[in-house]
Structures are given as C-alpha cells and as structure tokens.
C-alpha cells in the first residue's frame, strides 16, 4: 500500500505536462534491417544450427538485429528451404534462458502475449502479476489480437481461463480489461475529470467497498489521458486521504492490478523500468520478467524505459543486466537494448 500512496502523491505533485500523442513506436531499440534478405538470413541460421557446438553469436546477430516482421519472413524462408520449422530446429540446439528469449522473438507480438498469458494460468497456481502487466498495459487493438490468437493457438477463450483461475475484484478488473473497450481518446473532458475525482474522494470518505467499485470502473474504462487529469483534480481535493482510506484494505494481486493501471496512466515506461528493477533486485533474477518486457517493448518504447531506469535508479539498465546475467542470454539481452 505504501507504493500506492507514493504514486498518488507523485501524481498530485506533477505539473501536468504530459504528451499522450507521442507515438511511442519511435522509441524502440530494434529497427528493421535496411539490407534485409530473408533467404540469406535463413541460410546463416541453418549453418549456425548445424555448426558443431552451435554458433550462438550468429543466432544473436540475426535474430536480435531484425524487426519482428523480418523474423516472420526468415521463419518462412527457413521452412521453405529446409522443410522444418525454425523454432523446432532452434529448440534442439539451444537451452535455458537463451532458448526462451530466442523462441519468444520468433513469435509475433500477439502470439507472445498469448503464450505468456497461457503460461500464467496453466498448472497449479496463477501468475497474476503477468496477467496484470499484459492486460493493464496493452491497447485495445493489442488485447483483441491477443484474445484472437489465444483462441486460435490454444482452442480456449482467455476470459474463461481467467474466470476459472481468478476471483473477486481482480477477476472483475481483468475481465473488464479483456473487453478491449477502454477509451483511448487523447482529448480530455475536464468537467468529467473533476466530477470523477470528486466521486473518488467522496467514496473514500464513506466506505472502502465503494472505493473498490468506483476505482475499478474509472481505471478500466477511462483513457490514460483522462485518468491523468482525474488524478490531478483528486490531488486538489486531498493529497493523500484516498491512499489513507485504501491503506490496509487493498493487498496482493488486486492492488498490483490497480497500481499497474495507475502507473501506466502516469508514466508507462517508468512502470516497466520498475518491473525490470524488481526482476533483478535481491537474490536471483526473474529472467521470465526480464525477457518478456525487453522482448515485448523492444520495438515500442524500450529507449524510454531505459531512460526512466537511469533516472529512477541512477544506473543504466545495461549495467544491471551485465551484473545479473551471463553468457549468451546476457549477449542477446544487451543486443536488444542496443548494445551489441
């Protein structure tokens, strides 16, 4: 809950200067290779796979320095020339975290999101943090593509899997996000922002149960631009009373889900920077999180995430990756960050 309080205070103290039309796709670290040739790259990978001991350096060079669209063409060219899927060939010769990241990069973005969501709900226990991260940060178009791919690949409805694995307020929140109907209008309705800030404030003054329903409705339906303005007006009413009302009431995965939506509206690259930092903090490294965020944001806003990481933690993301990883996994992560 302390994190929720800190973020509300940060929002309240913000000067309001934020551009919701910046076109974040310009801020990826991975760009299309201007001299791309799918057949040549497929031949390079075939040779690298068949080399005794495997030529991992060539695999990194080809896979991590091509756009996702180009990788799909390489997959097709490899299949055509060898008669075998590229992913299957790589699975046989690679291992551990390096194998995971290479296979992740061969998937399209909707395939990778669907893969991560399926992994989060299958088996004993549910990884709610992954559900929160993906559904809380993707656009309506991305969520729709994810749901369609999930059904095609796994023969199941994502919503049904969520219903069977998650309950209560978290279930309500995730299923609302699954509808992919959240406003994405960058124009702000000032009067509505004032009114909903007041509704949040008054809900907090009454009962915590009301706060949850109001929070879910506002956070899952309003655009990020509108949320930003709502938070500012809330700050004019009370700097921290909502946080005080919520403190001790929200916890665990539901808190994490709402925090994802709040942080995403405030500063999405900073949210991902924090997730990366937590993945590498303390004993051991959560390579699943490290891989998922770096791969999925590499053509969208990884440059901004790296900038926020440096601002927030006083050191570069690459410094921590070098400290916390090793071998071919380290090399491919560094290449994705633009440091081959």
From TrEMBL:
Q: Which Gene3D superfamilies would you find in this protein's record? A: Annexin
Q: Which GO terms describe its biological process?
A: cellular response to glucocorticoid stimulus; phagocytosis; signal transduction
Q: Which GO terms describe its cellular component?
A: cytoplasm; nucleus; plasma membrane; vesicle membrane
Going by the entry's taxonomy, the superkingdom of the source organism is recorded as Eukaryota
| Entry annotated with the keyword Repeat | yes
Q: Which UniProt keywords apply?
A: Annexin, Calcium, Calcium/phospholipid-binding, Repeat
Per its UniProt record, what PROSITE patterns does this chain match?
ANNEXIN_1, ANNEXIN_2
Q: Name one Pfam family in it.
A: Annexin
GO molecular function terms here?
calcium ion binding; calcium-dependent phospholipid binding; phosphatidylserine binding
Q: Which family does it belong to?
A: Belongs to the annexin family.
Return the domain comment text from this UniProt entry. Answer: A pair of annexin repeats may form one binding site for calcium and phospholipid.
Mind telling me what this protein is named? Answer: Annexin
Organism per entry = Cyprinus carpio (Common carp)
């Amino acid at each position: 809950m302390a994190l929720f309080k800190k973020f509300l205070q940060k929002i309240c103290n913000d000067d309001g200067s934020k551009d919701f039309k910046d076109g974040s796709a310009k801020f990826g670290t991975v760009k299309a290779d201007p001299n791309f040739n799918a057949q040549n790259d497929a031949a390079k990978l075939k040779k690298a796979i068949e080399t005794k001991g495997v030529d991992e350096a060539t695999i990194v060079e080809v896979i991590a320095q091509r756009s996702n669209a180009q990788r799909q063409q390489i997959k097709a060219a490899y299949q055509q020339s060898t008669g075998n899927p590229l992913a299957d060939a790589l699975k046989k010769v690679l291992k551990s975290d390096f194998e995971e990241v290479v296979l992740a990069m061969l998937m399209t973005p909707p395939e990778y999101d669907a893969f991560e969501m399926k992994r989060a709900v299958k088996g004993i226990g549910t990884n709610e943090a992954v559900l929160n991260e993906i559904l809380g940060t993707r656009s309506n178009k991305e969520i729709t593509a994810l749901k369609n791919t999930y059904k095609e690949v796994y023969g199941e409805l994502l919503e049904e899997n969520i219903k069977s694995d998650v309950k209560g307020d978290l279930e309500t929140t995730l299923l609302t996000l699954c509808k992919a109907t959240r406003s994405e209008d960058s124009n702000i309705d000032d009067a509505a922002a004032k009114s909903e800030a007041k509704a949040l404030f008054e809900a907090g003054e009454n009962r915590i149960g009301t706060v949850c329903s109001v929070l879910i409705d506002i956070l899952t339906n309003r655009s990020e631009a509108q949320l930003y303005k709502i938070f500012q007006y809330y700050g004019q009413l009370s700097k921290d009373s909502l946080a005080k009302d919520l403190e001790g009431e929200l916890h665990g995965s539901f808190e994490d889900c709402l925090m994802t939506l709040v942080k995403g509206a405030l500063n999405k690259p900073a949210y991902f920077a924090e997730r990366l930092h937590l993945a590498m903090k303390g004993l051991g490294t959560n390579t699943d999180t490290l891989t998922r965020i770096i791969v999925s944001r590499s053509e969208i806003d990884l440059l901004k995430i790296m900038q926020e990481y440096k601002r927030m933690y006083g050191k570069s993301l690459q410094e921590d990756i070098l400290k916390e990883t090793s071998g071919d996994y380290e090399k491919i992560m560094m290449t994705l960050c633009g440091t081959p």
